[in-house]
Design a protein that fits this description.
Blueprint: E1 2-4, H1 5-15, E2 20-23, H2 30-41, E3 46-49, H3 53-67, E4 71-75, H4 79-82, H5 85-93, E5 98-104, H6 120-124, E6 130-133, H7 140-152, E7 158-164, H8 165-169, E8 171-173, H9 193-205, E9 209-213, H10 215-220, H11 223-233, E10 237-239, E11 254-257, H12 264-272, E12 275-279, H13 285-288, E13 299-304, E14 318-321, H14 324-333, H15 344-356, E15 360-361, H16 370-380, E16 385-388, H17 392-400, E17 408-409, H18 420-430, E18 436-441, H19 442-445, H20 452-458, E19 462-468, H21 473-482, H22 499-505, E20 509-513, H23 519-528, E21 533-538, E22 548-549, E23 558-559, E24 590-591
Parallel strand pairs: 2-3, 2-4, 4-5, 5-7, 6-7, 9-10, 9-12, 10-11, 12-13, 13-14, 16-17, 16-18, 18-19, 19-21, 20-21
Antiparallel strand pairs: 1-8, 15-24, 22-23
Helix pairs in contact: 1-2, 1-7, 3-5, 3-18, 11-14, 12-15, 16-17, 16-23
Length: 592
């Protein structure tokens, strides 16, 4: 079939099942956009025009996380391509399947510093799973097929396809449904049988086991297997920020999130366990605190599809390379429903920690607490897909929202401000019948607020709640705690936009909520509105996110724990028992 490289590219995307592309056009990518136009006229594909390329890559990311499919974004050469870099790194850190297509100057001009030329292949080498520069139009179909296979299998990640303009325009003999040739790429899915036996032996011997579940469990769809394993041996379960949704947080076996802003009972559990079963997790620093003090008495089983993660930070007694779902299914197949349960005393200890150190939703007499806003969204929209930006609101959302599989979408590894709302629009495009809510902060939201235009143009029904404290909240908290209250460039109050007027300027519904008594009704109105909403919740300015493990400290050494002698009092106890903050003690609305 005689056609052009650009047609081959777009048709190959259609044949990969791509229904939506997020992007922004420009000179070098125009041959591809001309074919996208024709494909849209044939109802083969839908292009979503963002207002900044970073919005495109975050939208493709949210699309992928919500569905498990490969997200696709497109940009032109030079600044268009470089504007994708933060989103590519976000996807790489969090193992998100994505194909990123960039235009490039014509092949004969590469290396000449041509207009809008950048070496995006070289720039992104450390932050992609794989990269291609298309050298001949006949290679396009194979490259697209390989890119989707690489992006979506094994440990997922972003794959870059850089296509020079002349390759897009060049004639070629296009052969659809090209095969792939990747002899060196063969992910391991099934765990080694001997390692499965060794893992089962350790599980049977353990008296204080703990399942430590990361994003790999969500990616593999292993929530049912993890639930069965936890139930069979009565093993408590903690999740990472990426692992939220892989285990039912309403279960009595759940101890919620661990780590820097995890629950006290999760951190105490990991410090006291005798067996740590790491499932699709990577022992990152925000989870472990001081690494050599993390789970100090525990033997470790580490299950991960990426062999590079095994032993990278913590040496396991039983490393198992394989897909989490397959490996846990094999462990279950090697055990019975009549297994001896040895964890009764351990579960009683964990329940005591839950009783002594609950997560508290405070109320204040003259202002809104951020926690109660987030808690109310979780109560009224328990089955929603939640995206977040990055900062205090993200950690409060992780603490107080209980999400199902793939319904928690947040930038974890890179911590990308400006991620939440574009990711939400991507998730909503993918799943238009689902409720999608973005929890953002006033500082994060301003980084990509231009994407409100996309919600307006396409009628994408995303609800965005801004937890507005007039600060870069987490930066302010660190400056208060570790930098002598020197608030350098973190105060956002001066110059803060009127978010209601901003929403109106984009043709959206805007709301401002300033009183605690109005929260429930406002949340109900936001959810019920038939269209996008931007809601500005004015919350307590100096509220800090606790518990908190200070940098370089053990997970046992948490700032801001509730004093068990004054249950449900406002957190007051800090490092080494020193009072860090003090507020009038008030009754909480809820404890979790």
């Amino acid at each position: 079939m005689q056609t052009t490289g650009a047609f081959a590219l777009v048709d190959s995307l259609v044949k990969q099942g791509v229904e939506h592309i997020f992007g922004y056009p420009g000179g070098a990518i125009l041959p591809v956009y001309d074919e996208i136009y024709k494909a849209e006229e044939r109802d083969e594909i839908t292009h979503i025009l963002v207002r900044h390329e970073q919005g495109a890559v975050h939208a493709a990311d949210g699309y992928a996380r919500a569905t498990g499919k490969v997200g696709v974004c497109v940009a032109t050469s030079g600044p268009g391509a470089t504007n994708l870099v933060t989103g590519i790194a976000t996807a790489q850190m969090d193992s998100v399947p994505m194909v990123v297509i960039t235009g490039q100057v014509p092949s004969y001009a590469i290396g000449s510093d041509a207009f809008q030329e950048t070496d995006i292949f070289g720039i992104t080498l450390p932050i992609v799973k794989h990269s291609y520069v298309v050298r001949a139009p006949e290679d396009v179909a194979r490259i697209v097929a390989e890119a989707f296979h690489i992006a979506g299998t094994g440990r997922p990640g972003p794959v870059l396809i850089d296509i020079p303009k002349d390759i897009g325009l060049a004639a070629c003999n296009y052969q659809p449904n090209a095969g792939i040739s990747l002899r060196g790429y063969k992910p391991t899915f099934k765990g080694h049988p001997n390692q499965i036996v060794a893992a089962v032996d350790l599980i049977r011997q353990a008296e204080r086991p703990l399942l430590y579940v990361g994003g790999g469990a969500v990616i593999s769809g292993a929530h049912a297997e993890i639930q069965q394993l936890a139930d069979r041996f009565q093993i408590p379960v903690t999740t990472t920020l990426m692992g939220k949704g892989a285990f039912d947080e309403n279960s009595s076996l759940s101890v919620g999130m661990l780590g820097m802003h995890g629950s006290a009972y999760a951190n105490y559990a990991v410090q006291g366990c005798d067996l740590l079963i790491a499932v699709g997790a990577r022992f990152d620093d925000r989870v472990t605190g001081k690494l050599d003090l993390f789970a100090p008495t525990a033997k470790v089983i580490h299950i991960d599809i990426d062999p590079a993660e095994l032993g990278k930070n913590r040496k396991p007694q039983v490393p198992i390379v394989g897909d989490v779902k397959h490996v846990i299914a094999a462990i279950l197949g090697s055990t019975t429903y009549e297994e001896e349960v040895r964890t009764a005393d351990w579960l009683r200890q964990i329940q005591a920690w839950k009783d002594d150190y609950p997560l508290v939703v405070p109320q204040y007499p003259n202002c809104i607490s951020p926690q109660e806003v987030i808690f109310e969204f979780g109560k009224q929209a328990p089955n929603a897909f939640f995206t977040t930006d990055v900062g205090q609101h993200q950690m409060w959302a992780a603490q107080f929202l209980k999400c199902g599989p793939r319904r928690w979408i947040s930038s974890a590894g890179l911590g990308t401000m400006g991620y939440g709302m574009p990711a939400a629009l991507g998730a909503k495009v993918a799943l238009p019948q689902e409720q999608v809510i973005c929890i953002s902060g006033d500082a994060s939201f301003q980084m990509n607020l231009q994407e409100l235009a996309v919600l307006s143009q396409y009628g994408i029904n995303v609800k965005t709640a801004i937890i507005n404290n007039g600060w870069q909240g987490m930066v302010r908290q660190w400056q208060e705690s570790f930098y002598g209250e020197r608030y350098s460039s973190s105060n956002m109050e001066v110059g803060m936009p009127d978010f209601v007027k901003l929403a109106d300027a984009f043709g959206l519904k805007g709301m401002v909520i300033q009183h605690g008594d109005d929260i429930a009704a406002a949340v109900a109105e936001i959810i019920a509105h038939d269209g996008p909403v931007l809601a500005d919740f004015h919350v307590k300015r100096n509220e800090n996110c606790y518990p908190m493990v200070a940098p370089g400290k053990s997970n046992s050494d948490m700032v801001g724990l509730t004093d068990p002698r004054q249950k449900h009092a406002t957190p007051i106890v800090g490092l080494n028992g020193i009072v860090q903050r003090s507020h009038p003690a008030v009754a909480p609305t809820e404890t979790v």
